[in-house]
Amino acid sequence: MLRLVPLTDGHNDLPWLLRSRFKSDLSLVDLTKSLANSQTDIPRLREGGVGAQFWSVWVPTSLPGSEALQTTIEQIDLVHRLCDAYPKDLELALTSDDIVRIHRSGKVASLIGMEGGHSINNSLAALRMLYRLGARYMTLTHSKNTDWADSATDTPKLNGMNGFGESVVKEMNRLGMLVDLSHVSADTMRHVLRIAKAPVIFSHSGSRAVCDNPRNVPDDVLSLLKANGGVVMVVFLPSYVSARIHDHERMRDVEVARLRSAGKSDPEIGASMAAWDSDHPAPKATLKEVADHIDHIRDVAGIDHVGIGSDFDGGGGLVGLEDVSKYPALIVELLRRGYSEEDVAKVMGLNLVRVLRDAERIAAQAK
Ligand SMILES: [Zn+2]
Q1: Structural contact between residues 127 and 171, judged by C-beta atoms closer than 8 angstroms
Q2: What does the alpha-carbon distance between residue 68 and residue 63 come to, in Å, rounded to a whole number?
Q3: What distance in angstroms lies between residue 234's CA and the mean position of ligand 1's atoms?
Q4: Which of 103, 204, 246, 305 is catalytic?
Q5: C-alpha closest to that of 123 among 54, 183, 73, 78
Q6: DSSP structure class, residue 108
Q7: CA 136 to mean position of chain CA atoms
C-alpha cells in the first residue's frame, strides 16, 4: 500500500533536534545510519514507508519577534540543507504534485511546516517571503497567544483572532499556504473556519471527545471541518491521545501546586514528587488509542477528514508507535477494525494531498 500511496505525516521535529544537539552542523551527523536517542533517521523512514513528511521549523515562543523570524529562516535553511545532503533519500516538495512525483521516485517528499504565528513577527511581507522559501503550512499559534490569535494553552485575549489575524488567514489562502489549527484555541478554530476560503489542517491534534485536552479538536469544530474540506492529522503525543494519561498529568499538576502553595522549596517539591511518582506510576498510551481518535474523527467529520501527524522528535511516540518505522502497525490496526484499503489510504496520505491540491487551486483562482 505504501508503495502506491504517499504516507504523509503532518509534523516531525527533527530540525529542532539537529539544531539543539548538533548546532545544525550536518557534518556531525549521518542520517543514513541509526540516530541514537531520536525517533527519526533515514533507515527508519524507509522501514516505516514514509512517503512525505512535513518537517517542522518550530522556534520557541520566548524569542523576541525579529529573532523568531531569523531563527525560523535558519530552520528552513536546515531543511533545505538536509535535502541537499541526502539527495537519494530526501527531496524538497513545494506542491501536491511534488509529493506524488517524489514519492513515485522512491524518495521522501520533504515539506516545510512553520509551527507558530510568532514566526512572521507581525509582518505579511515576512509571511510571503517564508512561503517563497518553501513553507507550506503555518500553525497560527504555538503554546502562547500571538498578538493576533489565541492559543489553546494561554489566557484568551481575543476570543479568536483580531483583524490582522483575519488578514493573515486571507493572505495564506491567497498564497496557497495551509492554515494549521493545531495549538489554537477552539474559538480561533471556529473564527478561521468562518472565514477560510481553503481547507485547513490540524497538523498534529486529536479529538477532544476521546481525550479532553484543550489542544484537541471539539466535535462542533469537526462538523465545521467537514464543510471546510480540511483534515485533522492525528497526533501520537501521549497526553493528547490518552485520557488516562491526561488525567494522571492533571493529578500530578494539582499535587505540585498543593506543595508549592504549602510553601515547599523546589528541592522539597522534587523529593515529594519522586515519591508521588513511584506511588502513582504513569499509564502508557497505546497505538489502539490513536486508532480510537481516528475512529471518532471519521464518525463525526467523515473518512475524508482524517490524517496522521505524529510529532515524532517533538514529544510524540507511544506503545506500538515508537518511531517513524512503526506506521505499518497503525495500518494493520485500522484494517483489523474493518477500514477498507481505500479508506486507510485516505488516512495515510491521500486526504492531505487532496487538501493541499484544493488550497493550490483556490490560490490560483485568487491570482
Ligand atoms: Zn506542537
Answers
A1: yes
A2: 5
A3: 12
A4: 204
A5: 73
A6: E
A7: 13
Q: Catalytic site residue 183?
A: yes
Among this protein's residues, is 246 annotated catalytic? no
Spacing, Cα 56 to ligand 1 middle (Å): 9
Q: How far apart are CA 366 and CA 221, in angstroms?
A: 26
Q: What's the grid cell of residue 366?
A: 485568487
305 part of the active site: no
Residue 155: CB atoms within 10 A of its CB come to 9
Would you put residue 265 in left (φ > 0), alpha (ψ -120 to 50) or beta? beta
183 C-alpha to ligand 1 centroid (Å):
7
Query: How many Å lie between the centroid of ligand 1 and the Cα of residue 142?
Result: 7
Measured in Å, residue 58 CA sits from the centre of ligand 1 at: 8
Grid cell listed for 329: 502497525
User: β-strand 50-56 against 7-12: which pairing, if any?
Assistant: parallel
Residue found by looking up cell 521535529 in the block? 13
Question: For this structure, is 293 an active site residue?
Answer: no
Could you read off the pLDDT of 104-155 as tens digits, one per residue? 999 999 999 999 999 999 999 999 999 999 999 999 999 999 999 999 999 9
Angle at the Cα of 194 (from 188 to 195), degrees rounded to 5? 95
The grid coordinates of residue 31 equal 542520517
Structure confidence by residue, pLDDT tens digits, 287-318: 999 999 999 999 999 999 999 999 999 999 99
Q: Is 115 a residue of the active site?
A: yes
